[in-house]
DNA sequence: CTGAAAGCGCTTACAG
DNA sequence: CTGAAAGCGCTTACAG
């Protein structure tokens, strides 16, 4: 059945390999050299105005897209950045991560870079090693840091530029972080000034740098306000399946007036326990949290919390990475702000 | 201060470009040709056992990693797959997406493929166009489909292999999906058989194929059970800021005995409204949801819901894509199962 | 079993 | 202003 022939030139029968149009095709069609075509596109090197326009017009018309990969090979670049995303199902500040990714992509795209994503479990260096050995990236962004950071450590031994979202003590690491310490310090102060002295601090993995930072802010607030800190109100490493649930009794026994949670997932669990125990928020006990994510968005009462701009963080991280890739010497540590959102749960 | 000299060979002073060791270096060092080295690594073509081992040993020892990019260029492949992730902040079935990504990465890595991630807002084809024109991927996975699917449409006009997670009517698309229709049908049936006849259906964007599928399953369940379906209990397109909140009155006025929500975020909003109105679950009204995600995990009472395995979906999608890339003709439609999790909210 | 050479699709000194 | 040629780091017929 020979018919129509209306197939667009790029449609092919199954299995046939499609030859994309290349720079040679363009050069040949125009009767110029590849060099000239290349120059017209890149804007580098001298080239006659008329020639350039002729090339550009042809390219536009024939929908020629240079192969970024071939370009990269010639320049010893990849135009990719590796992004290592943590796979921790229980720490669901995911909307935050998605925003982060979005920010990264936004600035990466401006420089014609793409994101090579890799998800890895904490403590697992294999994914990163794979990325490194594949030689497919010009730099990498770590979306989360750890106190003893395996990935940052690996990268530091490399000459590949990288930036961490989150603080790290790995020597030479360029880092971008929200001001977790001062955020927690300010929120704690606000609570203390409301005459709420017994603030239980509920946090996750002590191995996360953020956990430490927040804890520090909490302590400083007590110092600032001249209130003695009670060690028995500190509850860290609470992300295990039932740890927090069991410690809740203790928290209440200690007479906590406020429960300050380091992330919304923990807070959600605290709220559940309180609900089951018929303890009312904020009447019987106040509650505050971090992240202001969708997880608690619908809670009644609304939850006082700290909010960080994931997108901004992502953008900044990517900018810092680009600076390094382009050979500049970026600011080592960049600290971004936060917002305190006061709501019903601490009234 | 000339000291130590203990720097590992790959450490360099600032700015110095590091020449990675190449196949030529290896060949030269061993006194063989690049061809031989290449063959030793790839396992293709005849090569003496002893030679191969000598090459492999040297490579191992000197930590030589072939450039996947150069390899790709020579083979007209990229060893990347593009993954288009939706950016919809309100539809937070994100743990689901993360699982999906994880599944994709898992099987991709087995074939030495990497993930090129792109986040795009619904209706925005620019990101995909960028990916396509950059020529950096051998295929793409769409993580969500729409009734009129812009991205699938674009891809179909291409000769690039792609697979959608979610059903689509785009001609020729290879698709992998959970059995949303039957899932919803079965859950609805279960409820109907509990003599709960007035089941309000609360759903999101009618433009999402899943919304349609579920709606269909809901209808079929009514047919199966011989219960007439009440149009006034159908509430779709509820994801706007206040739409659902306003419709809640209507839902209650219509005397709904159960509110069946198409995703956990919607369900969370329903629960909030009920709580504010002092309407008790399951005493006054039953509630059921989809996804079984962390958002509702901590809810009291526990919520009856459908659960889908994101990771499995991702793995399958990636397998189907690989099959296409390798020139096989994959199954057009793959349907995966679901689980029904009965809990307190419908007791 | 092994190698020289051409090629993948670009860029970039160098020369004119 | 323009082009021939070498090179980026691999693979793969082809010949021996």
Computed over alpha carbons, the radius of gyration of chain A is 27 Å
Reported for the largest beta sheet of chain A, the result is: 6 strands, parallel
Apparent shape of chain A: elongated
Number of H- or I-type helical stretches of chain A:
13
Strands of the widest sheet of chain A, in order across it, are 2-1-3-4-5-11
The number of distinct structural domains of chain A comes to 3
Q: What share of the residues of chain A lie within helices?
A: 40-55%
Assembly level: homodimer
**Greatest interface:** A-B, 65 and 65 residues
CATH architecture of the largest domain in chain A: 3-Layer(aba) Sandwich
Low-confidence stretches of chain A: 1-17
- Reading off the top of the CATH hierarchy, the class of the largest domain in chain A is best stated as Alpha Beta
Extended strand count of chain A: 12
In N-to-C order, the SSE pattern of chain A is HHHHEHEHEHEEHEHEHEHEHEHEE
Q: Work out the strand percent of chain A.
A: 5-15%
End-to-end gap of chain A = 78 Å
The CATH homologous superfamily of the largest domain in chain A is termed Response regulator
Mean pLDDT of chain A: 88
The structural class of chain A is alpha/beta
CATH topology of the largest domain in chain A: Rossmann fold
């Amino acid at each position: 059945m020979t018919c129509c022939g209306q197939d667009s030139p790029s449609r092919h029968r199954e299995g046939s390999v499609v030859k994309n149009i290349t720079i040679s095709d363009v050069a040949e069609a125009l009767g110029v050299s590849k060099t000239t075509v290349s120059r017209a596109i890149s804007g580098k090197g001298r080239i006659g105005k008329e020639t350039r326009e002729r090339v550009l017009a042809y390219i536009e018309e024939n929908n020629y897209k240079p192969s970024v990969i071939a370009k990269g090979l010639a320049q010893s670049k990849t135009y990719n950045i590796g992004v290592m995303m943590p796979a921790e199902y229980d720490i669901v500040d995911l909307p935050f991560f998605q925003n982060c990714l979005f920010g990264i992509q936004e600035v990466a795209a401006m420089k014609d870079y793409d994101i090579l994503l890799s998800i890895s479990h904490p403590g697992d260096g294999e994914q990163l090693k794979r990325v490194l050995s594949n030689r497919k990236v010009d730099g990498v962004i770590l979306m989360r840091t750890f106190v003893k950071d395996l990935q940052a450590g690996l990268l530091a031994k490399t000459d590949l530029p990288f930036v961490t979202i989150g603080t790290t003590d790995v020597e030479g690491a360029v880092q971008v972080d929200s001001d977790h310490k001062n955020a927690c310090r300010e929120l704690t102060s606000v609570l203390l000034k409301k005459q709420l002295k017994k603030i239980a601090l509920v946090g996750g993995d002590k191995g996360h740098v953020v956990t430490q930072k927040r804890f520090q802010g909490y302590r400083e607030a007590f110092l600032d306000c001249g209130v003695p800190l009670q060690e028995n109100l500190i509850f860290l490493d609470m992300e295990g399946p039932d740890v927090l649930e069991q410690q809740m009794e203790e928290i209440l026994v200690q007479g906590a007036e406020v429960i300050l949670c380091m992330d919304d997932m923990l807070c959600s669990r605290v709220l559940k326990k309180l609900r089951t125990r018929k303890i009312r928020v904020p009447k019987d006990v106040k509650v505050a949290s971090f992240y202001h994510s969708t997880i608690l968005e619908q809670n009644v009462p609304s939850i006082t919390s700290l909010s960080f701009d994931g997108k901004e963080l992502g953008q900044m991280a990517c900018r810092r990475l680009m600076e390094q890739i382009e050979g500049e010497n970026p600011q080592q540590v960049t600290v971004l702000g936060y917002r305190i959102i006061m709501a019903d749960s601490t009234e």
